[in-house]
Design a protein that fits this description.
Helix content is 57%, strand content 10%. Helix 4 runs parallel beside helix 7. The two termini are 38 Å apart.
């Protein structure tokens, strides 16, 4: 799954901001973004700026942001990658297309799987080590649900919904989705097989052909412009759970020799082992925020053979075992949440 360090903010976003009643100038101040950003669209944001913008939107609207976003969702505000999904035959095909083009939209990955229980969509973020805006998770779930309803003109109800943070106004979201939100270590939702295969009334093969070449070009540009460090990091993110993360294995995946890999990284003043350790360290901190994840699960996701090996590595990175740091981080996160509720 491709990853990139820069994401394009489309001019279409201004339509959505206006529909949502957001103060666009104040958004830039809150997110600490350039004051002339709206006059420079399309513009590139990094992951931190992307999520800072979400935080700013959440500050203005509050936890109802995802519900308002679903209410005002229309094709005028769609990025071409999303509009292309509406041209698909059904939800299953649309989500597989969107999974490929997600790097063009933001620092989120979309994993699409189908089994005898239906269509499972799982989301994750990258490139950001602060607490995610709670609204991001719910906006993604609301978007997928609303997209399915728009395209089929049917009040589709997800079979299951999972978030890592429950909103205070959970009842409002349960009413919108038609089912309850469940607390989990993973952001995900499931649609029944019947709904996943329900024909899209918006299917348009000719329109899809129009978008396909441009989207493929934009994806290719991501690959061409990526540095060797970015390519290696993206590949390591995919390979970590398999444990196949040696320099030889990464070089093989990139179709270059180990010597060439190291020479290119040297040219960017980067050491492969340091890059791997830093990536594991950053991901470990993110995973520790998810209280329901065991050390064994985190060890697996980071490509360690067992929890003890992970604990030793983590202690070398941070000077304390993961349990100690995890407790501190969760206490701090709780303190921040309580403070925000008081001032809000």
């Amino acid at each position: 799954m491709k990853r990139t360090s820069k994401f394009t903010l489309s001019p279409h976003c201004l339509i959505l901001f206006k529909d949502l009643g957001l103060d666009q100038a104040q958004l830039l101040k809150q997110a600490k973004l350039p004051a002339d950003l709206w006059q420079s669209l399309p513009a590139s944001l990094n992951a931190a700026q992307y999520f800072d913008l979400w935080h700013a939107m959440e500050e203005q609207i509050g936890e109802t942001l995802p519900l308002k976003l679903a209410q005002h969702l229309n094709v005028e505000a769609f990025d071409p990658a999303i509009f292309a999904c509406l041209c698909s035959a059904n939800l299953s095909a649309a989500m597989r297309r969107l999974s490929s083009y997600k790097p063009l939209i933001g620092p989120l990955t979309l994993d699409v799987r189908e089994d005898n229980q239906g269509l499972l969509l799982s989301l994750d973020c990258y490139g950001y080590d602060k607490p995610l805006p709670k609204s991001v998770e719910l906006c993604e779930l609301a978007f997928f649900t609303q997209l399915a309803r728009l395209a089929t003109r049917t009040q589709i109800v997800p079979a299951a919904l999972y978030v890592t943070q429950l909103p205070d106004n959970a009842a409002e979201f349960n009413d919108y989705f038609g089912t309850e939100l469940n607390l989990s270590h993973q952001v995900a939702l499931r649609f029944s097989t019947e709904d996943a295969q329900r024909p899209f009334l918006t299917e348009n093969a000719a329109m899809w052909s129009f978008f396909e070449n441009d989207l493929a070009r934009r994806l290719a540009e991501l690959d061409a412009s990526a540095s060797m460090t970015q390519k290696v990091k993206a590949l390591l993110m995919e390979l970590l759970p398999s444990g196949q993360v040696s320099a030889d294995q990464v070089a093989g995946k990139l179709a270059i020799s180990k010597r060439t890999l190291q020479r290119k990284l040297d040219g960017e003043s980067v050491n492969f082992q340091s890059l791997l350790s830093t990536l594991r360290s950053d991901l470990a901190r993110q995973y520790l925020r998810r209280s329901s994840m065991s050390l064994q699960e985190i060890a697996f996701l980071l490509g360690f053979s067992d929890a003890n090996t992970f604990i030793r590595a983590f202690s070398q990175w941070h000077g304390v075992p993961p349990v100690s740091l995890g407790i501190r981080m969760k206490r701090e996160l709780t303190r921040i949440i309580q403070f925000n509720r008081k001032v809000g």
